[in-house]
Automatic annotation (TrEMBL):
PROSITE patterns, sorted: PROKAR_LIPOPROTEIN (PS51257)
Signal sequence extent: 1-24
Subcellular location: Cell envelope
Record-linked Gene3D superfamilies: 3.40.50.2300
Name recorded for this polypeptide: Sugar ABC transporter substrate-binding protein
Keyword Signal set for record: yes
Pfam family of the protein (one): Peripla_BP_4
Primary site of residence: other
Keywords linked to the UniProt accession: Signal
Family: Belongs to the bacterial solute-binding protein 2 family.
InterPro entries assigned: Bact_Solute-Bind_Prot2 (IPR050555), Peripla_BP_I (IPR028082), SBP_2_dom (IPR025997)
Every Periplasmic binding protein domain range: 57-299
Length: 337
């Protein structure tokens, strides 16, 4: 036993020394190096490979303050630290500006691109330019149906129609009769597919409500008005985790008995599932989307590997209920689920 304890102490000393050197390097080289060191610590203290320091850029359709994309980035950053990748990120909810961001990274000659195709028509031309420039592309989260056609190596995410169908089936299990599907970003084809999928399997009636997702007071008042006008609505389905608590507030103000359900998961949604203010969530594992996208680009650059054979690599859907929320709390609080 003494030999085991001595070995453990020696290993601890080595690890402490490695960490100390990393931290010393951070203080000597400023904020940029400090951020790289923090990412490396998350991945185990250092890059796991000695391949070139490639640069991968991700461009999403996210608006400002969308916590879902924080989780995607957390996964991407951990994979980047492991794979010796410089990871950069840009976003814009407007399709043409998203395309402009992609073009800027093409001009910078990045080594790989990760993009979303929530508004595919706006992205088609710029992805053709990426292909012409020899920059490999992975699509993530949205756009699985056009990813291969637009020249991407692979798509990482959930099939939005299948995810919607899972919602409809869960509503049936809960004996719901009338659901309100709240779309917070007009023009996002994935959102339409979610509601279409739910309508396909749901045996009750499903009504769409379009709201301006960047204006939470408007989202709340719109849902509240619908619940007040139609007491038969017994379920509200939001299409993103940040909108679920807002729907709960709308329900309370409308004095409604409707169940609030949502796509996606975060710490606040997990808490809502635990306390019963939310019924269920459909998790597409955004951390995994970011991690796999970076990892697959690295594998392609390093070994010409392509995963999926042209078909989407699915990360969801997973229906999460009250019984699951406790087990996931550790991960939602650290920003990985």
């Amino acid at each position: 036993m003494a030999r085991v304890r001595t070995g453990a102490r020696a290993l601890g000393a080595v690890l402490a020394g490695v960490l100390g050197l990393a931290l010393a390097g951070c203080s000597a080289t400023g904020g940029k190096r400090a951020e790289e060191a923090r990412n490396a610590q998350v991945a185990g203290g250092r890059a796991a490979v000695n391949t070139p320091k490639w640069t991968f850029a991700m461009v999403s359709h996210s608006g400002d303050g969308d916590t879902f994309w924080d989780i995607v980035q957390n996964g991407a950053k951990q994979a980047a630290a492991k794979d010796n990748i410089k990871f950069v990120y840009g976003h814009d909810e407007e399709g043409s500006r998203q395309a402009q961001l992609v073009q800027s990274y093409i001009d910078q000659k990045v080594d790989g691109l990760i993009v979303t195709l929530a508004k595919p028509d706006a992205m088609k031309g710029v992805l053709a330019k990426a292909e012409k420039a020899g920059i490999p592309v992975i699509t993530v989260n949205s756009g699985s149906e056009v990813s291969e056609k637009y020249g991407a190596l692979s798509h990482i995410g959930q099939d939005e129609s299948i995810a919607g169908e899972a919602v409809g089936e869960e509503l049936n299990k809960r004996h719901k009769k009338k659901a309100l599907c709240v779309l917070h970003e007009q023009g996002n084809v994935g959102h339409e597919q979610r509601c279409d999928g739910a309508a396909k399997t749901f045996k009750g009636k499903l009504k769409r409500l379009y709201v301006e997702g960047t204006n939470m007071p408007d989202v709340q008042s719109s849902i509240e008005s619908q619940l007040q006008a139609d007491p038969k609505i017994d379920s509200v389905v939001t299409l993103g985790a940040p909108f679920a608590p807002t729907a709960v507030k709308a329900k309370e103000q409308a004095n409604s008995d409707a169940e609030i359900d949502t796509f996606d998961l975060n710490a606040q949604v997990a808490d809502g599932l635990k306390d019963g203010s939310l019924g269920f969530a459909v998790d597409q594992q955004p951390y995994l989307q970011g991690y796999q996208a970076v990892d697959l680009l690295w594998l392609y650059k390093y070994n010409s590997d392509v995963l999926g054979g042209g078909r989407p690599v699915l990360t969801g859907p997973q229906v999460v209920t009250k019984k699951d929320a406790g087990a996931l709390a550790e991960y939602t609080k650290r920003g990985t689920r």
